[in-house]
């Protein structure tokens, strides 16, 4: 039976409520539970989950909605007590914080007058509005939020460009400014390689590989995944490249992108050739055969990092970086076990694995029959479990293991499955112990398949550094103890999984050839605001998820928390009237 409690004017951020939902769902006697704010979008999620009740009809965006499915009515009091305890502990923790918490933009600016970056992680329908408020206060903006319209993204990026500011995002998961990681980011050594990417986990993979290979990162600028589309036109990518080109500490620039629009790619590549510094570029899905002039093209994220490190260290550039580094593990498989199932929390890591498997199988272009699938052909599947279809009303798989474990079990039930390929992404924002959280599911699958006379092999990469909040060596050790085959990069993990099935990926050797056409190198000038961003530790106004303050304070940045609430209770008509009045 469904029980509904609506707590009026009790706003909490989405991550807090997702974690609270997970906690309550483990209570004995609870069939299902969902705790969300009463926004129209969340009400749609509750309807889709079969948890919508009449009591939710009048709930506003500022109201906390608790829906519990249980056959024991007495459990409701227990649930409410658990919720109150959780929120009370959150309030106690807030009282011990080393930064100031405010409830308006004006108070935020008064508390931190030199703030130069705003991190926006509000619900998507409010993000563009808050980003514009930050731009009006001459701040750069990182928009972590998704579900921002293309029209809004274009408008705020054009406004930022005119003001000499950067908008990183929407849906920018990872940024590093002067050694300070923002949102979902790793702690990497500071150095001379500047990174810019239309990809969150692509940036994480490349920056952690740079760290592992003994070099460091000056900045990592996330542009948001749509920046290189024809509708946006690479506004942030172009401005960010110019910023890195003029930054004295940056000696090598690295660019990461999923497939861009052709005209936009041409404009970006033309700019790359006009930069006097060497540039390493990867356009995922492309298969470059040569480097051109001062621009070095990579096939994999691992090669991207290796090229950048060799360039910054003055080493000789190798013709081919994409080969297996470790011995291929011996396997004992049934004749029908011929496929790989890749279950990824990182969309770009999944895309890279899908590309490598497609090359190994000579599949060419493949169609995806549903959202979230990056590859679905001949029983081989690569799924991005961070896709919106899997995260509506649920935590991202970097935070919560449940969705991944469910997909592990489904993959194991397919008799064609030989290898389950996956990633564990460490760093700020990610789960404190993802390896430990995944282990019970992995061990259960291994025991069940062995009892049925089959072996299923797990192959993984751990994306992180020894400076991250999690202990990377401990994470790897836990997985290896359970029999998981660990590799140092996503490329190596995918190549290993393929080699276990006797499949090789042949990569061409590349040489440096002259650029197709001569482009004069340019010394770029950037705005005073961008120059300051490139040369100082950031001062941040964090609008939304309080979790994002941790990485700033721990790495020498300054932050004020804007304890954001929807204006006018989230009522669209009232919000518009208030905006016009202002």
TrEMBL record:
<protein>
    <submittedName>
        <fullName>Acyl-CoA synthetase FdrA</fullName>
    </submittedName>
</protein>
<dbReference type="InterPro" id="IPR036291">
    <property type="entry name" value="NAD(P)-bd_dom_sf"/>
</dbReference>
<dbReference type="InterPro" id="IPR005811">
    <property type="entry name" value="SUCC_ACL_C"/>
</dbReference>
<dbReference type="Pfam" id="PF02629">
    <property type="entry name" value="CoA_binding"/>
</dbReference>
<dbReference type="Pfam" id="PF00549">
    <property type="entry name" value="Ligase_CoA"/>
</dbReference>
<dbReference type="InterPro" id="IPR016102">
    <property type="entry name" value="Succinyl-CoA_synth-like"/>
</dbReference>
<feature type="domain" description="CoA-binding">
    <location>
        <begin position="189"/>
        <end position="285"/>
    </location>
</feature>
<feature type="domain" description="ATP-citrate synthase/succinyl-CoA ligase C-terminal">
    <location>
        <begin position="343"/>
        <end position="498"/>
    </location>
</feature>
<dbReference type="InterPro" id="IPR003781">
    <property type="entry name" value="CoA-bd"/>
</dbReference>
């Amino acid at each position: 039976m469904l029980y509904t409690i609506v707590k009026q004017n009790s706003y909490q951020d989405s991550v807090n409520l997702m974690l609270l939902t997970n906690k309550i769902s483990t209570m004995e006697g609870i069939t299902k539970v969902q705790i969300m704010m009463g926004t129209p979008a969340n009400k749609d999620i509750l309807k889709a989950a079969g948890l919508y009740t009449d009591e939710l009809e009048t709930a506003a965006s500022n109201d906390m909605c608790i829906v519990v499915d249980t056959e024991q009515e007495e459990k409701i009091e227990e649930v409410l007590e658990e919720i109150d305890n959780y929120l009370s502990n959150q309030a106690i923790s807030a009282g011990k914080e080393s930064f100031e918490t405010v409830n308006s933009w004006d108070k935020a600016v008064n508390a931190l007058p030199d703030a130069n970056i705003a991190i926006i992680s509000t619900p998507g329908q409010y993000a563009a509005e808050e980003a514009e408020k930050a731009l009006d206060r001459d701040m750069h903006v990182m928009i972590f939020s998704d579900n921002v319209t293309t029209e809004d993204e274009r408008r705020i990026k054009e406004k930022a460009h005119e003001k000499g500011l950067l908008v990183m995002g929407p849906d920018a998961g990872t940024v590093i400014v002067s050694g300070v990681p923002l949102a979902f980011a790793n702690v990497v050594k500071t150095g001379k390689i500047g990174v810019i990417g239309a990809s969150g986990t692509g940036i994480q993979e490349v920056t952690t590989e740079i760290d592992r290979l003994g070099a460091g990162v000056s900045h990592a600028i996330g542009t948001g995944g749509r920046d290189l589309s024809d509708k946006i036109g690479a506004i942030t990518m172009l401005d960010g490249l110019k910023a890195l080109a003029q930054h004295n500490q940056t000696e090598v620039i690295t660019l990461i992108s999923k497939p861009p629009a052709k005209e936009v790619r041409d404009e970006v590549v033309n700019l790359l050739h006009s930069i006097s510094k060497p540039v390493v570029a990867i356009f995922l899905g492309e298969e470059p055969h040569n480097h051109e002039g001062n621009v070095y093209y990579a096939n994999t994220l691992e090669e991207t990092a290796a090229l950048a490190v060799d360039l910054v260290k003055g080493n000789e550039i190798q013709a081919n970086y994409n080969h297996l580094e470790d011995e291929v593990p011996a396997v004992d498989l049934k004749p029908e076990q011929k496929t790989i199932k890749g279950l990824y929390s990182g969309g770009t890591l999944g895309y890279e694995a899908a590309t490598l498997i497609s090359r190994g199988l000579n599949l060419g272009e493949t169609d995806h029959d549903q959202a979230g699938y990056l590859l679905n052909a001949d029983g081989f599947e690569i799924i991005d479990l961070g896709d919106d279809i899997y995260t509506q009303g649920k935590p991202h798989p970097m935070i919560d293991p449940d969705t991944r474990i469910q997909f592990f079990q489904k993959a194991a039930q397919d008799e064609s499955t030989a290898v389950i390929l996956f990633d564990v992404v460490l760093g700020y924002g990610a789960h404190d112990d993802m390896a430990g959280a995944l282990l019970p599911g992995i061990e259960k699958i291994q025991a069940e398949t062995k009892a049925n006379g089959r072996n299923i092999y797990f192959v993984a990469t751990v994306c992180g550094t020894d400076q991250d909040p999690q202990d990377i060596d401990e994470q790897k050790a836990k997985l290896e103890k359970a029999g998981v085959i660990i590799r140092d990069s996503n490329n190596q993990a995918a190549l290993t999984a393929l080699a276990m099935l006797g499949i090789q990926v042949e990569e061409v050797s590349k040489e440096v050839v002259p650029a197709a056409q001569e482009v004069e190198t340019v010394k770029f000038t950037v705005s005073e605001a961008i120059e300051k961003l490139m040369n100082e530790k950031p001062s941040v106004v964090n609008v939304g998820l309080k979790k994002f303050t941790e990485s700033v304070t721990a790495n020498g940045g300054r932050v004020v928390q804007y304890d954001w609430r929807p204006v006018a209770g989230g009522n669209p008509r009232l919000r518009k009237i208030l905006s016009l009045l202002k």
